[in-house]
Structures are given as C-alpha cells and as structure tokens.
Amino acid sequence: MKILVCMKQVPQKDAPLKLNESGTWIREDVSYEVNEPDAYALEEALRQKEKHGGEVVVITAGPARAQTVLREALAKGADSAIHLEDNGFVGMDAANIARAFVTVIKEDKFDLIFTGLQSDDYGYAQTGVIMAELLGWPHATIIMEIQKTDGGIKVKRELESGFFQHVAMPVPAVLTIQSGINKLRYATLLGIKQAKNKPLRKVALDEVKSVLGENMQKIEKLYVPQKSKKTEMLEGSAAEVAKKLVEKLRNEVRVL
Which homologous superfamily is 2-211 in? Predict the structure, then answer.
C-alpha cells in the first residue's frame, strides 16, 4: 500500500502564549512540535507498511521551520516527503490547505491518505474530510483500528459513550486518525542518519496558487482572558440562601 500522511507543525503545548501585534495569531518566536494526532497517523502508516509492504510519504505546508516535522517522520521510517514551503501557508484555513495538498499529489497513486483527527492549534478537524471530497474518495473519521481485507479495509471508529463502529471500506480512502490508536516510536540513530538521504520535494506557493481562494474561516482576534475574582455572600436561612443561589445560577450565570 502507498500511504500519504498529512502532518503539521504546531506550537508546543507548554509554550508561553505570545500574541502578534495584530492580535490575530501567536508570534513566531515560540517553540514548535509535531501535531500530536498527526504523529499517531504517521505511526499507524508505518505499521501498515511493516505489515503489508508499500511506501509512506509525508506532506506538510508551512515556512522553512516546518521541515523539521518531515525530517522527524523520515527518521522514523517514512520513505519520502513533500514540503509546501512558504510563510503564506501559515493561517490558511482547512479548505485551502486541502486544495493545495490535493493539487500536489493528484498525479500520485495513493491507496490511503491519513491525517490526524485535528490540529492542536486551530482544531478544525476538516482537512482530511475536505481532501476526500475534492478527490471523490470515501472517508472515515476518528479511526482507532485499521485492518486490510481482500476488498479494501475495515476500520474501527470511536463514537460517544464508549461505543465503537466497524465499517468496511474500499480503497483509495481518506482516514482521520485518533490519538492513542497506537504507541509512538522514537527515531533511531540509524534512522536519523538515513533521513538525510531520503527524497524531500519542495513546492512553492506559486505552484498551487491557482487553486487557492479567500479563507472561508479566519480568526478575527485572539486575547488572553483576564483573571478576575468576585465574592458575594448570601445571607439568610439555609432555605433562603439555597433559593437565592438557584436564582443566580439560573439568571446570572445561566448554567441551569
């Protein structure tokens, strides 16, 4: 099987939050890491390759710093990488990123495309689903298990309240992978050395610009909530205090 894994570089979870001057996103001078759900998608792709043979290709979009995501994936066992390299990809919505990815890989014959369930920064959970629509492929989300069958694949989806759904699917298909589907591996020293010689294709923004449009989703403003504290004492008998408390929770806090 030939599997494409879509990956993203995101700010580290414990990085101090610093907003840019316009207040629309964070500043560039923070630490970055691989998006966690994408790391699980890569691991599952590598396991499928080890079981059934084939090839794993990783792709990302972003500035030069995002290449570390691809290098890490190559060190873990991916065969090649594609980098849509430009600062202009920062801040693009899921629809535009999906259009760019599909344009770049449309000549390749992939059996499966994996994405993480969602990104840790924007959290849209849409890129994989939109790619499936653009390609005309079936898709399934929140995947916890993948089994190859004679006619395609069988997947296990995580639903609410501890329930799961088992679905048989043809290939090619797009799957969005849930965190925790497997145990992540570390890159070996040998893998890190081999990664330096693996193919990494760079794609400029101009090569995909014709398929891009205005963002259909955009962040107008970000802000750090101000901490505040207000204490109000309710007086009276226990019954009176309980009644006042219920009224405040219903009319002021609006949680009832």
Answer: HUPs (3.40.50.620)
> Residue 107 has which token pair?
């000549």
Model pLDDT for residues 32-78, shown as the tens digit of each residue: 999 999 999 999 999 999 999 999 999 999 999 999 999 999 999 99
Prediction pTM value:
0.84
Structural tokens at position 51: 């079981």
